[in-house]
UniProtKB/TrEMBL annotation:
The gene is leuA. PANTHER family: 2-ISOPROPYLMALATE SYNTHASE 1, CHLOROPLASTIC-RELATED (PTHR10277:SF9), HOMOCITRATE SYNTHASE-RELATED (PTHR10277). CDD domains: DRE_TIM_IPMS. Belongs to the alpha-IPM synthase/homocitrate synthase family. LeuA type 1 subfamily. It comes from the Bacteria. NCBIfam families: PRK00915.1-3 (NF002086). Keywords: Acyltransferase, Amino-acid biosynthesis, Branched-chain amino acid biosynthesis, Leucine biosynthesis, Manganese, Transferase. It comes from Sphingobacterium spiritivorum ATCC 33861. One of its GO terms (molecular function) is 2-isopropylmalate synthase activity. Its EC number is 2.3.3.13. This is 2-isopropylmalate synthase.
């Protein structure tokens, strides 16, 4: 597969790694709706499911393959013949099918999960890729628990699966174990020591157990990865996966650091798609979640509000419009200053003289100490009760 070295491929696994979270299960029509939105969002790959896992998941991959036209549809398998046969069958209507096969690469997985040896696992990896390749041109291989795998062995595995035909090599930090510099160094090592690495795209798949999924994915990109596997709102197994919206906005805000690397993501859809996934999957988004949390663009302290109202860039690195929000929020609390109160009163049509504003502000503080949320009605009452 020819790939553009200046493009960061966004591989969305909301409907696979995300959907495997308890309580997040979706029906096939719901998955189709989200897949169509992901296509509009501009992702390059949609991981549609794990077909052998259940008849429902199989059917979802079939229907998504029919419903989506431009994006690669990917199906997950373990490294065995039956999984791959079933995935190939589920992908038969996909215009751009990809099989994602793989096996554990750390000694912990090899010994305890497979009761096997490094040599045997290497053989299984290679034959799985060859078998997948007999069905589709585009085969992605995942070296599960690569975050804790021996580096030399991982390099050997990566080289062997590329030689067997893998077009993408996924280096998952399955347990969210690595630090960003460790994960980045792993990618750099593969880039520099695997002789056929230029024949494949390196993919980062990071979990968030230590809150480092996004940082690790970014470190991977800085060291040569050109695909990031992520989910909307960062949902996924345990503490979740890398959040798609965070990666896309980091790329945008720090574009010069990435030497002009681009993605096709339309960030203006973030608020919409985040809310939709949250509602459909019954997974609330934490209010302070970067980019899409309720408070991500809400300024509440007086010092910040004053600076923001004088010049928004003092406290704003992303314009809310860029993520599909109408505007930033100036929240009124007991920590707000006069400037914020004046701003809201003017918005409601009240122009107060300096002295009157000062008096209203004192009464506002008493109210705000007693009441958590100050709404427009409260402000109107504050002004009109005094005027009356
Ligand atoms: O976290 C992981 O290792 C995975 C693989 C199945 C890609 O989700
Ligand atoms: Zn995962």
């Amino acid at each position: 597969m020819l790939h553009d070295p200046n493009h960061l491929y966004i591989f969305d696994t909301t409907l696979r790694d995300g959907e495997q979270v308890p309580g997040c299960q979706l029906t096939t029509p719901e998955k189709i709706e989200i897949a169509k939105d992901l296509e509009k969002l501009g992702v390059d790959v949609i991981e549609a499911g794990f077909p052998v896992s259940s008849p429902g998941d199989f059917q979802s991959v079939v229907e998504l393959s029919k419903a989506v036209n431009d994006v690669i549809i990917c199906a997950l398998t373990r490294a065995n013949k039956n999984d791959i046969d079933v995935a190939a069958e589920a992908l038969k209507f996909a215009k751009r099918p990809r099989i994602h096969t793989g096996i554990g690469s750390s000694d912990l997985h090899i010994q305890y999960k497979f009761n096997s040896t490094r040599e045997e696992i290497l053989e299984r990896a290679v034959s799985a890729v060859k078998h997948a390749k007999s069905y589709v041109e585009d085969v992605e291989f995942y070296a599960e628990d690569a975050g804790r795998a021996d580096l030399e062995y991982l390099a050997k595995m990566v080289e062997a699966v590329i030689a067997a035909g893998a077009t993408v090599v996924n280096i998952p930090d399955t347990n969210g174990y690595c630090l960003p510099d460790q994960y980045g160094a792993k990618i750099k090592f593969l880039k520099e020591n695997v002789k056929n690495i230029d024949q494949a795209i390196i993919s980062a798949h990071c979990h968030n157990d230590l809150g480092l999924a996004t940082a690790n994915s970014i470190a991977a990109v800085q060291n040569g990865a050109r695909q990031v596997e992520c989910t909307i709102n960062g949902i996924g197994e345990r503490a979740g996966n890398t959040s798609l919206e965070e990666v896309a906005m980091i790329l945008k805000v720090h574009n010069q650091v990435f030497g002009g690397l681009t993605s096709n993501i339309n960030s203006q859809m973030f608020t919409y798609i985040s809310r939709k996934v949250s509602e459909m999957m019954n997974m609330p988004v934490q209010p302070n979640k970067a980019i899409v949390g309720r408070n991500a663009f809400a300024h509440s302290s007086g010092i910040h509000q004053d600076g923001f109202l004088k010049h928004r860039e003092t406290y704003e690195i992303i314009r809310p419009e860029d993520v599909g929000l109408l505007e930033a929020d100036i929240i009124l609390t007991a920590r707000s200053g006069r400037h914020a109160l004046k701003h809201h009163l003017e918005r409601l049509g009240y122009q107060l003289e300096k002295e009157e504003l000062a008096l209203t502000y004192q009464r506002f503080l008493v109210l705000a100490d007693a009441k958590k949320d100050i709404c427009d009605e409260d402000l109107v009452t504050l002004v009109t009760s005094r005027q009356g």
